[in-house]
């Protein structure tokens, strides 16, 4: 009686399938839609959007300040003079315009 040292074909198929599945899930965990690389991209995008949000909030605050300064309740004469000069092209009588 001779015994074969060869493993059965079912065991080889089982380990091959297990290896293929583990390779697939490892790949999906790293590069899939919800993988590590996508998570890093999302975090970078979130930081960029936070910077945009801060910039837009400062612009909105500046516009609110200018709007308040030109309102009926509070009138900033310097800002009104600046706007009249830039929008309407007005100058005072004692000024000289050089083009």
Q: Short description, anyone?
A:
The chain has 99 residues and is mainly α. Helix content is 70%, strand content 0%.
Number of helices: 3
* Major β-sheet annotation: none
The total strand number stands at 0
Unreliable stretches (pLDDT < 50, length at least 5) are: none
Q: In percent, how helical is the residue content?
A: 55-70%
Rg measurement, Å: 35 Å
Q: Spell out the helices and strands N to C.
A: HHH
Shape: rod-shaped
Give the end-to-end Cα distance, rounded to a whole number of Å. Answer: 112 Å
Overall SS class: mainly alpha
User: What is the average per-residue confidence, as pLDDT, rounded to a whole number?
Assistant: 87
Strand % is: under 5%
List the helices and strands and how they pair.
Layout lengths: L8 H23 L4 H34 L7 H12 L11
Describe the 3D structure.
- By secondary structure, this protein is mainly alpha-helical.
- Helices cover 70% and strands 0% of the residues.
- It is built from three helices and no strands.
- The longest helix is centred in the middle third of the chain and has 34 residues, at 36-69.
- The relative contact order is 0.04.
- The mean pLDDT is 87.
């Amino acid at each position: 009686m001779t015994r074969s040292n060869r493993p059965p074909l079912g065991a080889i198929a089982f380990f091959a399938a297990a290896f293929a599945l583990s390779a697939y899930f490892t790949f999906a965990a790293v590069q899939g839609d919800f993988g590590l690389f996508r998570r890093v991209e999302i975090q970078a995008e979130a930081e960029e959007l936070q910077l945009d949000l801060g910039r837009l909030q400062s612009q909105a605050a500046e516009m609110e300040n200018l709007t308040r300064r030109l309102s009926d309740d509070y009138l900033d004469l310097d800002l009104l003079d600046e706007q009249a000069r830039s929008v309407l092209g007005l100058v005072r009588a004692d000024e000289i315009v050089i083009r």
